[in-house]
Amino acid sequence: MDKFNNILDKHIEILKKETLTDEDINFLLENIPDVTSLKKGDIEKLREIIELTNKHKDQILKELSKYKQKEKAFYEYNIENPNVISISKKI
């Protein structure tokens, strides 16, 4: 299993928890998978991550606002659809 799939699996494992810890959120924000080269099966994992992320969106958005306040805005969030959060690295 490659590093990309390990990161996807770790995201899914964390997001399945009822409540996220600060460490969980930091892992999610610091290990955003590079989705430029998807393989078969990756899309289903990404869909699951998006659905699970939606469950924790308020907590994740709160943590993202802390990053912005500290001027460590390496990540941005886009709410293209009110029910989905997309988190991506700023380049």
Task: Tell me what you see in this structure.
- The protein is of the alpha+beta class and 91 residues long.
- The protein is 54% helix and 14% strand.
- The longest helix is centred in the middle third of the chain and has 14 residues, at 42-55.
- The relative contact order is 0.16.
- Helix 1 packs parallel to helix 3 (42-55).
- Strands 1-2 form a two-stranded antiparallel ribbon.
- It contains 4 helices and 2 strands.
- The protein has one domain.
- The termini are far apart.
- Residues 70-79 have low confidence and may be disordered.
Order of helices and strands: HHHHEE
Structural class: alpha+beta
Radius of gyration: 13 Å
Shape: globular
Q: Report strand order across the widest sheet.
A: 1-2
- Sheet having the most strands: 2 strands, antiparallel
Question: What kind of assembly state do the chains in view correspond to?
Answer: single chain
Overall structural domain count = 1
Q: Topology, please?
A:
Blueprint: H1 3-15, H2 22-30, H3 42-55, H4 57-69, E1 75-81, E2 84-89
Antiparallel strand pairs: 1-2
Concise structural overview:
The protein is α+β, with helices and mostly antiparallel strands and 91 residues long.
Keywords:
91 residues; 4 helices; 54% helix; globular
